[in-house]
Amino acid sequence: MKAMLQVYDPQSEEPEVFVAELPVTVGRGREAEIRLADWWVSRAHCQIDEVDGSLVVRDLGSKHGTLVNRHSIVESQLSPDDELMIGLTSLRVRIDREAGDRPLKSSIS
């Protein structure tokens, strides 16, 4: 499964993040595959994975939590057009069947 996250942050230089391999960790730290330059984001904030053919996000014990469609979650299935809020950064979930040849963009600043 290929996914694309559209970033809704006026200060972001990267408007899209293509996720070609799962699982992927999202956070502020060096160990995160997708790094967000947002001080409200924990070093290892959440993980996005595929479970039984569905995209799932799991909070990794972050200090400020992970929200899906403005609801705090521990784990939640993601559908196209869901809003994922990580720290102060808002991302829109897209399924991108053509993303296979595009590189993972790992740093959002």
List the defining traits of the structure above:
single chain, 109 residues, mainly beta, six-stranded mixed beta sheet, 0% helix, globular
Topology:
Layout: E1 3-8, E2 16-19, E3 24-27, E4 34-36, E5 46-51, E6 54-59, E7 66-68, E8 71-73, E9 75-78, E10 83-86, E11 89-95, E12 107-108
Parallel strand pairs: 3-4, 4-12
Antiparallel strand pairs: 1-2, 1-11, 3-5, 5-6, 6-9, 7-8, 7-10, 10-11
Describe this structure in words.
By secondary structure, the chain is mainly β. The chain contains no helices and twelve strands. The strands form two sheets. It has a six-stranded antiparallel β-sheet, with no helix packed on it. A hairpin with a 7-residue loop joins β1 and β2 (16-19). The protein is globular and about 30 Å long. Mean pLDDT is 83; it is low at 99-107.
**Amino-to-carboxy terminus distance:** 25 Å
Q: Could you tell me the mean pLDDT? A: 83
Q: From the alpha-carbon coordinates, what is the Rg to the nearest angstrom?
A: 12 Å
Q: Largest sheet, described in full?
A: 6 strands, antiparallel
Strand-and-helix sequence, N→C? EEEEEEEEEEEE
Low-confidence parts, pLDDT < 50 over ≥5 residues?
99-107
Number of helices: 0
Shape: globular
Number of strands: 12
Q: How would you name the oligomeric state of the polypeptide chains in this document? A: single chain
Q: What class would the helix/strand composition place it in?
A: mainly beta
Q: How are the strands ordered across the major sheet?
A: 2-1-11-10-7-8
Helix content: under 10%
Strand content: over 45%
